[in-house]
Amino acid sequence: MRPGKHGRDETPVPGKQQGPVLTRRGQVEEGTTDQRLLDSHGSADWVHTDPWRVLRIQSEFVEGFGALAELGPAIAVFGSARTPADHPDYALGEEIGRRLVEARFAVITGGGPGAMEAANKGASEAGGVSVGLGIELPFETGLNQWVDKGINFRYFFARKTMFVKYAQGFVVLPGGLGTLDELFEALTLVQTQKVTSFPIVLLGTDYWSGLIDWLEGPVLAEGRISATDLDMFQVTDDVDAVVDIMVQAREDRWPTPPAERPE
């Protein structure tokens, strides 16, 4: 408890972020907006309410496009929200955020705690653009303190569109289901040629080795993927290599005219 100047407890109260709306205490609603959208059970009221939801969905796209349109080259960094601040992966997230800024990239994360916070912190402390694209979840309370430009989404699909549209590459730190979801979505978009010139780097060879063995083993052996699909990503422990890959992809995408190159 932290008493205020009038004797009141001023301990920060956790809340729930629903898009731009913050609720606390008795105003917190159960479930999430995505959950209500996707739940097909119950009364037929959805016939009348779903068309109106389109307007809210539209507003999320408009807000996201407006906020990020002039972002410039950016890299998305994904990783576990459960990474503690004293874990080596947190320090790795800070380093990759800082190094990407030094290479003239903005850094985009999911805006949450753990590895996402680490990358935002590294980017912000390096003086770069630190972006967080949050999502309404029942167990998270908003964007981390190192996000300098943040948008909180109600709908996963609107948020995912922003990652793919405004990031020129993905760096994937060790993580769980959410991280795997983002990784495999990116791989699918590259495989189906929905995005081009899109490097994907997994950082942490020990952590990702089991996944790679599975992909190179039964998944490939049974013809579920092609051998060339394994070329869509790289795995390394070397932060320098990660930055070099992203810089090379940027140069391939936006080659500098000879007249503008430094002597």
Give a short summary of the structure.
The protein has 263 residues and is an alpha/beta fold.
Write a concise keyword list for the protein shown above:
Rossmann fold, globular, 263 residues, disordered N terminus, 9 strands, alpha/beta, single chain, seven-stranded parallel beta sheet, 8 helices, two-stranded antiparallel sheet, disordered C terminus
Topology:
Blueprint: E1 15-18, E2 21-24, H1 33-38, H2 46-68, E3 74-78, H3 88-102, E4 106-109, H4 115-125, E5 130-135, E6 149-153, H5 156-166, E7 170-172, H6 177-191, E8 200-203, H7 205-221, E9 234-236, H8 239-253
Parallel strand pairs: 3-4, 3-7, 4-5, 5-6, 7-8, 8-9
Antiparallel strand pairs: 1-2
GO biological process, one term: cytokinin biosynthetic process
Catalytic activity: N(6)-(dimethylallyl)adenosine 5'-phosphate + H2O = N(6)-dimethylallyladenine + D-ribose 5-phosphate; 9-ribosyl-trans-zeatin 5'-phosphate + H2O = trans-zeatin + D-ribose 5-phosphate
InterPro entries: LOG, LOG_fam, LOG_family_nucleotidases
Description:
This protein is globular. It has a single domain, classed as Rossmann fold (3-Layer(aba) Sandwich), CATH 3.40.50.450. It is built from 8 helices and 9 strands. Strands 6-5-4-3-7-8-9 form a 7-stranded parallel β-sheet, with helices on both faces. Strands 1-2 form a two-stranded antiparallel sheet. The chain has helices at 33-38, 46-68, 88-102, 115-125, 156-166, 177-191, 205-221, 239-253; strands at 15-18, 21-24, 74-78, 106-109, 130-135, 149-153, 170-172, 200-203, 234-236. It is an alpha/beta fold. 43% of the residues lie in helices and 14% in strands.
